[in-house]
Write a structure and sequence with these properties.
CATH architecture of the largest domain: 3-Layer(aba) Sandwich
Order of helices and strands: HHHEHEHEHEHEHEEHHHEHEHEEHEH
Strand order of the largest sheet: 1-7-6-5-4-2-3
Strand content: 5-15%
Shape: globular
Distance between the termini: 68 Å
CATH class of the largest domain: Alpha Beta
Bound molecules: pyridoxal-5'-phosphate
């Protein structure tokens, strides 16, 4: 029998075992290293560590053993060489931009990305001379023709929010690389338990750990994962200098979240599929967006690219905004909040919350109608979730 190294173990094992370097105290669970700095045995050692000639802890803005354990674990799950943790998902995306871009560069971004991602590229990187064009997520010709000689990267979320639309990551990475650009994938909706974009050609993966990686709605955090080369050259210098680091307490919380990630994602996906099938049969439901349904236009792609279909569903009900609001207000169990990826089911009205800052025309162009409702399916008993929605779905127009 041969002994396996950590990267030969399956994802479930890595999610539990990776990253912990046990200290002389022989602890079984990873400790929280609540220390801002570290001591050196001599002036020479301090100098060697500060100049990077010797590895080791220096200062917790960029070296902390608890944060490092989280980074190693997530890198293993995403099949990347190196991961860096950040204070939030947005701080991670900001670091990708600050690290990779310079004035005069160009970005092509999916139109269907998290609202703050859109604002970050448009309003903030825009201020420093970086221009971003937004394209339809599924339109491969639009992606390719938007690329210019100065396009540094393509940025995408798949599946997207709130219409749960996918893009073929392999095909998009081929387009990016043909034009000497990089592909950045926000993997928040699937997590590495369902999809590993780096194995499909993506160059960097970004995360909001706030969602499924934690899984219980406790902490805000983010991460960037990729090759040693990209992370070392472009992302690490910005983390060290820019300073939007993850706290050791949050890293410790996310480490325990990762331990149950695979089980949770399977359970979220199983419930979401059954709920989507049930919603599809309700007389007042007009259309259900969920790639696990056989009639979803991208069911085939979802089957190839993902191991399960994920925990988020959206659907259009008969009527308009008032009917959507009435359904949301009729629930007693589901939480009315835009957060997702929690063991608690959440229900939201995208047109007046997450996408409420868009103009009516922009919302229509994006396919986000007033009768659209989104549910992040949690891990409560499925019959209880259905019962909670049932009465709100029984109305006559
Ligand atoms: C929440 C979210 C983010 C931003 O993450 P924060 O941790 O809230 O900063 C980015 N992308 C997606 C898809 C998200 O859902």
């Amino acid at each position: 029998m041969t002994t396996k190294t950590m990267d030969e173990y399956a994802l479930e094992t890595q999610a539990i075992r990776c990253g912990h370097r046990r200290t002389h105290e022989q602890e079984h669970s990873i400790p929280i290293f609540a220390t801002s700095s570290y001591v050196f045995s001599s002036a020479e050692e301090a100098s060697l560590k500060f100049t990077g000639k010797q590895p080791g802890n220096i200062y917790s803005r960029f070296t902390n053993p608890t944060v490092d354990a989280f980074q190693q674990r997530l890198a293993a799950l995403e099949k990347g060489e190196r991961c860096l943790a950040f204070a939030s998902g947005m701080a991670a995306i900001q670091a990708v931009g600050m690290g990779l871009l310079e004035a005069g560069d160009h970005v092509v971004c999916s139109r269907s990305v998290f609202g703050n991602t859109l604002l970050l590229f448009q309003n903030f990187f825009g201020k420093f001379g970086v221009q971003t064009d937004f394209v339809d997520l599924t339109d491969m010709d639009a992606w390719e023709s938007a690329i210019k000689p100065n396009t540094r990267f393509l940025f995408v979320e798949t599946p997207s929010n709130p219409l749960i639309t996918l893009v073929d990551i392999k095909a998009l990475s081929d387009i990016a690389h043909r034009h000497d650009s990089l592909l950045i994938v926000d993997n928040v909706f699937c997590t590495p338990a369902l999809q590993t974009p780096l194995t499909l050609g993506a160059d960097l993966v970004v995360h909001s750990a706030t969602k499924y990686l934690d899984g219980q709605g406790r902490c805000v955090g983010g991460a960037v994962v990729g090759s040693n080369e990209l992370i070392e050259q472009y992302i690490y210098p910005f983390l060290r200098t820019g300073g939007a680091s993850m706290s050791p307490f949050n890293a410790w919380t996310f480490l325990s979240g990762l331990e149950t990630l695979s089980l949770r994602m399977q359970a979220h996906s199983d419930s979401a599929l059954k709920l989507a099938q049930w919603l599809n049969k309700q007389p007042n439901v007009e259309k259900v967006n969920y790639p696990g349904l056989a009639d979803h236009p991208q069911h085939q792609l979802a089957t190839q690219q993902q191991s399960h279909f994920g925990g988020v569903i959206s659907f259009e009900i008969k009527g308009d905004k008032d009917n959507a609001w009435a359904l949301i207000d009729s629930t007693r169990l589901l939480s009315i909040t835009a957060n997702l990826g929690d063991v608690k089911s959440t229900i939201t009205h995208p047109a007046t919350t997450t996408h409420g800052r868009l103009s009516a025309e922009a919302r229509t162009a994006a396919g986000i109608k007033d009768n659209l409702v989104r549910i992040s399916v949690g891990l409560e008993n499925l019959e209880d979730i259905k019962n909670d929605l049932q009465s709100g779905l029984e109305y006559t127009l």
